[in-house]
């Protein structure tokens, strides 16, 4: 659907230009901000340069986001992964290995492959010490549920006799490790020493399941 066909929230008539701008402009600002923060870091990034990328004034950016700090925080929130759709109950009729593989593939996509989510993770590593509340939020909304899901799946597999008892049930962070390595490799070394990220993740899953099954 083209922007001209976007409907009014009531569904009665198409949105006018000004109404569309009200919806689209903050998104455009945040996308430009993500590029600028990733390129220069929080402290060196300039709001006027972000505004220029969108074709607006610095004052317009501040109309939507009061401070540079709030702009950074909203950029992180907007492009952080959302795995809410992957939190359904464990399916008793599907093998745990299949469910765990599917979940980890989605998780790895969010950390190491999705361009925006990957850059958010990198920004949290490089700038997070200055924004501890954002680290806490990212952990609470993304990492903690992911770790809980992995633990539940492994525990379920052990209870069913599909997986052997292992320390991974109490250290699920190990299963996220390859995605973090792939993320950092892609950000730091992609231009000079490219690697097949999908192959890294596939090999990691194979090694993990060897340990869980043998």
Write up this protein:
This protein is an all-alpha fold. The chain folds into 2 domains: 3-68, Arc Repressor Mutant, subunit A, CATH 1.10.10; 84-213, Tetracycline Repressor, domain 2 (Orthogonal Bundle), CATH 1.10.357.10. Helices cover 69% and strands 0% of the residues. It is built from 9 helices and no strands. It starts with 16 loop residues before the first helix and ends with a helix. Residues 1-5 have low confidence and may be disordered.
Quick structural gist:
The chain is mainly α and 214 residues long. It folds into two domains: 3-68, Homeodomain-like (Arc Repressor Mutant, subunit A), CATH 1.10.10.60; 84-213, Tetracycline Repressor, domain 2 (Orthogonal Bundle), CATH 1.10.357. Helices cover 69% and strands 0% of the residues.
Mean pLDDT: 85
In percent terms, what proportion of residues is strand?
Answer: under 5%
CATH topology of the largest domain: Tetracycline Repressor, domain 2
| Weakly predicted, low-confidence segments | 1-5
Taking all Cα atoms into account, the compactness measure Rg is 21 Å
Domain count, please report it: 2
Key terms for this structure?
single chain; 214 residues; mainly alpha; Arc Repressor Mutant, subunit A; Tetracycline Repressor, domain 2; 2 domains; 9 helices; 69% helix; 0% strand; disordered N terminus
What are the SSEs and their pairings?
Blueprint: H1 17-44, H2 47-54, H3 58-64, H4 68-79, H5 96-113, H6 115-127, H7 132-160, H8 173-188, H9 197-213
């Amino acid at each position: 659907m083209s922007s001209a066909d976007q409907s009014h929230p009531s569904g009665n008539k198409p949105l006018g230009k000004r109404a569309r701008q009200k919806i689209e402009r903050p998104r455009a600002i945040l996308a430009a901000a993500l590029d600028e923060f990733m390129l220069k870091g929080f402290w060196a990034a300039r709001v006027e340069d972000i505004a220029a990328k969108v074709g607006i004034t610095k004052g317009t950016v501040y109309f939507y986001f009061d401070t540079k700090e709030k702009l950074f925080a909203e950029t992180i929130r907007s492009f952080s992964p959302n795995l809410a759709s992957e939190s359904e109950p464990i399916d008793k009729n599907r093998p745990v290995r299949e469910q765990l593989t599917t979940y980890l593939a989605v998780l790895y996509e969010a950390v190491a492959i999705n361009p925006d989510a990957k850059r958010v993770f990198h920004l949290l590593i490089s700038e997070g010490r200055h924004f501890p509340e954002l680290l806490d939020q990212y952990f609470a909304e993304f990492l903690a549920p992911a770790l809980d899901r992995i633990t539940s799946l492994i525990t379920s597999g052990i209870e069913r006799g599909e997986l052997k008892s292992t320390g991974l049930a109490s250290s699920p962070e190990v299963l996220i490790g390859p995605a973090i390595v792939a993320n950092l490799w892609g950000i730091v070394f992609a231009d000079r020493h490219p690697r097949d990220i999908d192959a890294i993740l596939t090999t990691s899953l194979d090694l993990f399941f060897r340990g869980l099954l043998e």
